[in-house]
Amino acid sequence: MRVLVVGAGIGGLTAALSLHAAGIDVRLVDRADELRPLGVGINLLPHATGALAGLGLHEHLAAQAVATSELVHFDRFGNEIWREPRGLAAGHDWPQYSVHRGRLQALLLAAVRDRLGAGAVRTGHRFVTAVEESGRVRAVIQDRRDETTTEWDTDVLVGADGLHSAVRSYLYPKEGAPRWNGIRMWRGTAAAPPFLTGSSMLMAGSNHTAKMVAYPLATAADDGTVPVNWVAEVQTPHSAQGAADWTRTGRLADIAPHYRDWHIAGLDIGALLAATETVLEYPMVDRDPLPRWSFGRITLLGDAAHPMYPIGSNGGSQAILDAIALAAALRECADPADGLAAYESARRESANAVVLANRDMPMDRTLRLVAERAPHGFTRVEDVLSTAELRAITDGYRRTSATR
Ligand SMILES: Cc1cc2nc3c(=O)[nH]c(=O)nc-3n(C[C@H](O)[C@H](O)[C@H](O)COP(=O)(O)OP(=O)(O)OC[C@H]3O[C@@H](n4cnc5c(N)ncnc54)[C@H](O)[C@@H]3O)c2cc1C
Q1: What secondary structure letter does DSSP report for 120?
Q2: What pLDDT was estimated at residue 400?
């Protein structure tokens, strides 16, 4: 069986590694001329770490990442609302990791080239459309250097080509643009002194007005600082969505005033933002869950199948789970179409549930309640939230951290 994976992102590369481990012949194409380490921080939940460990990558991952030990919520004045352990500290078998997305992609790419051969990934090649004939698929691929197209014969075509998936558009030509919820996210990394445990993720404020998420991407350097990934979420008028492009730069001036006097758990947020060289901006978008991913010998995986709000550490994690399930289903099947149907029934319902749970954002509702009830801060969180309201934060994470 020959599989063509469109997209060499986190999901596509993991799919290539797991298909190869299952003895399946696999090639990848990616539209990018070169796979450069783009993006900022991304988080992997314990089940995704376990999946990468199953591919023999845990040691490499651990060397590049921080094992997140806790998640702590604050109001915008630095008063603590809620704290909960994560990863190994929460009793999971594998750590939760914070890692630079570009480093994770580079690690996966190196493993693909090492195991499948240097030519397994063809960059600068873009999926355009497909031709299906008598049980086979021909993918029409364009070489972006000279814009010539060729047809690539394959038994299975996997669309792992992200939010603006061309494979998804081929299957759902009328779908249209992603949906935006009115929140814009500015992101960046900068050096700062370690805060809390040195492996803590903090969330402060409310995304109804302004919220900050920050976590370290490595342990302390010789100068005692750590690279801190930050995400500023700010509610803005719907007229200002901006393109959903992960590489689009943003303006610090648009958000700095919101965070000027914020000092959270020893982290000077204003200084962190000011020290950031490149600020990226992205709208909080997703797409409605699909009723079907697999059509004959074509299927979708990762963000192409179930793009979700990038909260709750699930975008990359769910793509990795898809990749493992796809290889398991194709290894077992006699007919590739049956394999793709089995893959979809293993994954679609639970991934779609995470898309909807992320939309619901129960933890953000709780943070908003705090901002509304205690606009000038508080001394005891019990005076602001009931036990049930506090419990809703953990319940929300449980729903968005689905392990299957
Ligand atoms: C450049 C970039 C930066 C990102 N930065 C962050 C970040 O900082 N934080 C975060 O949480 N998430 C980030 N993401 C998204 C995150 O990687 C995904 O949400 C998650 O990992 C799921 O991965 P995926 O493999 O499904 O999709 P992606 O990681 O988006 O990968 C999709 C791949 O498909 C390729 N592609 C697209 N269209 C075509 C086509 N027609 N033909 C061939 N190839 C195609 C793209 O070049 C890309 O390499 C980023 C994605 C990209 C592409």
Answers
A1: G
A2: 62
> Can you give the pTM of this predicted structure?
0.95
Nearest CA to ligand 1 atom 6: 39
Atom of ligand 1 nearest to the CA of 7: 34
Q: Would the CATH topology of 2-33+124-177+287-358 be identical to that of 43-101+179-286+361-404?
A: no
Give exposure, 44-79, as e/b (b: 16+ Cβ within 10 Å): bbbbbbbbbbebebbebbeeebbbbbbbbbbbbbbb
Residue 68's H or E segment, with its range, is strand 66-68
Copy the structure tokens of residue 20: 């190869």
Q: Do the Cβ atoms of 73 and 36 come closer than 8 Å?
A: no
205 lines ligand 1 (CB under 6 A): no
Which atom of ligand 1 is found nearest the CA of 166? Answer: 41
* Length of the chain measured in residues: 404
Give the Å distance between the CA of 174 and the centre of ligand 1: 22
What is the torsional sign of CA 179, 183, 186, 187? negative
**359 token code pair:** 């939309």
Residue among 18, 104, 201, 246 whose CB has most ligand 1 atoms within 8 A, to mutate: 246
**Radius of gyration (C-alpha) of the chain in whole angstroms:** 21
How far is it, in rounded angstroms, from Cα 369 to Cα 339?
Answer: 46
Domain ranges for the chain: 2-33+124-177+287-358, 43-101+179-286+361-404
Distance 9 CA to ligand 1 centre (A): 5
Please choose, from the candidates 131, 141, 137, 167, the residue with its C-alpha nearest in 3D space to the C-alpha of residue 155. Answer: 137
Q: To test the ligand 1 pocket, which listed residue (13, 14, 42) has its Cβ within 8 A of the most ligand atoms?
A: 42
pLDDT of residue 240: 72
Q: How far, in Å, from the CA of 15 to the mean position of ligand 1?
A: 14
Quick: pLDDT tens for 152-191.
Answer: 999 999 999 999 999 999 999 999 999 998 899 999 999 9
Does the Cβ of 303 fall within 6 Å of ligand 1?
yes
Q: Is the domain defined by 2-33+124-177+287-358 classed in CATH 3.90.1150.10?
A: no
CB distance 399 to 357 below 8 Å: yes
Please identify, in words, the CATH class of the domain defined by 43-101+179-286+361-404: alpha beta
**10 CB under 6 A from ligand 1?**
yes
